[in-house]
Amino acid sequence: MKEKVGSFGVCLALMVSLLVMACTSKNQKEGHKNDLADALSPYLQQHSDNPIRWNEWSDEVLEKATSSNKLLVISIGYASCHWCHVMEQETFMDTLVAKEMNRDFVSVKVDREERPDIDQVYSKAAVLLNGSTGWPLNIIALPDGRPLVAATYMPKDRWLVLLKKASDLYREQPEALRRQAQNIVEKIIDPNDFQLTNEAKEHTGESSAMLGYASVYPILEQQFDGQFGGVLEQQKFPRVALWGAVLDYAALTSNPNAQKMVEKTLFQMSTGGLYDHVGGGFSRYSTDAQWHIPHFEKMLYDNAQLLGLLSKTYKITQQPLLRDRALATFDWLREEMKGANGLYHCSLSAVSGQTEGLYYTWTWEELTALMSGEDRELFFSAFDITRDGNWQDGKNVLYRQYTDQELSEMYSLPENKVGKIIKSNLLRLHQRRKERKLPDVDTKQIASWNALLVQGLVEMSLAFDVEEAYTEAVSLANTVHKKLQQQDDGLQRLASEQDAAHGKAFLDDYANWIAALIQLYQASLDKKWLDMALATTKYVLAHFDDPGSPLFTYSESNDSTLYMSEVPVLDGDMTSSNSLMARNLFLVGTLFGNSKYIDRSKAMLDKVTSTGMGNIIQKASWWQLMALHSEDITEVALLGDKAQAWAVKLQRRYYPNTLFIGGEEENLPLLKHKKVTGKTMIYVCRNKTCKLPVDQLELAVRQLKEP
């Protein structure tokens, strides 16, 4: 059981849950604007008409809180967050709430996608205080930013109780609250409290860090949902980092059960309501364990990562469903998420017309009017359409209840006929849906999320032989480099169609950009991408060092106004930026023959795994990295005029822990003395030992299959 950090959080929680304040107040809309009107973030702009005097995060705001000796209210959210909008309308538009906050607090609004460094630090505080976190995330903190209490969504009466209790305590017992805040900070900084959950600690002991790569899989097996796929949890998230690691394990160890786990999970995601059967693309998460009902916002980072996972899995299974979902998601991304400047937007909101899911759901009457006869009956069976609705308020979410094969048997129709009926009706729904108002688009363009899409597009082009995807990947990478990378190789995090790039990038931006450049090199064998990866890696090493640790800080080392520097370790919605940088260091070090980079990667891995690997759900990318350091990496060098074309063909298959290098010049250490005039040669090498060079693809494939 976690140690309690004091009575303040408990006291506030009791006050909030037990007291109800009757308030006479009103909402204010007409003409009011606060300082957020000039913000670049669409999410912050949405709060510009609140009567609260919101500020953007800055040194000046912290100084203002300190000089006025007022507590901070730090409210964190994002544009596609449904409950963020609900709290904005119900609570932050209220004039009585505004009066209390403007009098006794300095209020700060934060877009978590624009400032993930702030979000990560205060999310840790929320986990410590409440056992979990979520958004909107509302923090009451000392003037210097040290947190006192964390709360998520609150209606105005409960929020007013919380505000009054906090301001009274700060006025009457300021020293007690300062001690409380320092106690919280010390617990947050202690890595042992956050690298392993209580559940994970039960699985780990003194010897667990030494068990090795293969021993981690049984821990994961215990947490797999064999019936519905995914992890055993009430709400299901894609967790792409986890399933990518499992896919690697399945391929490296020839474990069919591990492969089935990935296949089952992707099948459930791709046939459930998480996937938009009408327009393509995946929602952020499922609100139920069956993957039926999504939380309807669509995020660029989820879809970019899923493109990669669908593509890699297809290389092994050749399942048409995976190809279909990837291609439809690619089409959706270009249609609804691509900006005029060539970069991709952040997200689509869950809300349209003030109603969650309105854009994506259908009533019985709407669907009945669009279809007829036996086709309608079959379609309704396929997607579990009912008169009362399969969700709420008479609305139906499209999720597959039966496969085409099952419907073929039920209706005595050829399976291809069933597929045509479903496809034609989905096209009809797509046309009708275009008449609806599209949910709001958060038009921020984030470096790391666009870099993730480059990676997904490269994987897709290789798996499905889609030249259009590769062309888009190259175009997007060139745009990121032109618009977001500076002459000193540093990155800007944000862009938009209206504004110049702004905001210093964070570790996830750099890590994902380097990974994208390495992938582009392997697909193109164009060394310019690798040179860019090396230059960006050097920038990270120079600016993100964590003193006394092999790990990297999330913000540039000398650039944080927070009360602590975050060193991200665990996987979340995206792969841990430290584990990805460790992987990048290993690959860049291998490609350029730099043993210091490889040693740094190993030191990072040792640092994290020293506490055990029980928390595999959030350490999956480190497990994946273990394979690079414990198994022999394979290098496939191709030299000659056919090198690039052959490299692409070889990468139609899935070879984890394999680097493809080459071209027409011996321009890397691993390529020296391998060129043969007039021929294209392939060298398959493991553990610094090469097999006999071959000049036929089939022979290289055979060598890659050999142990």
Automatic annotation (TrEMBL):
GO biological process: carbohydrate metabolic process
Pfam families listed in its UniProt record: Thioredox_DsbH
Signal peptide as annotated in the record: 1-22
SUPFAM superfamilies: Six-hairpin glycosidases, Thioredoxin-like
Domain (Spermatogenesis-associated protein 20-like TRX) ranges: 34-188
Keywords associated with the record: Signal
InterPro entries reported in the protein's UniProt record: 6-hairpin_glycosidase_sf, Ssp411, Ssp411-like_TRX, Thioredoxin-like_sf
PANTHER family: SPERMATOGENESIS-ASSOCIATED PROTEIN 20
Protein name: Thioredoxin domain-containing protein
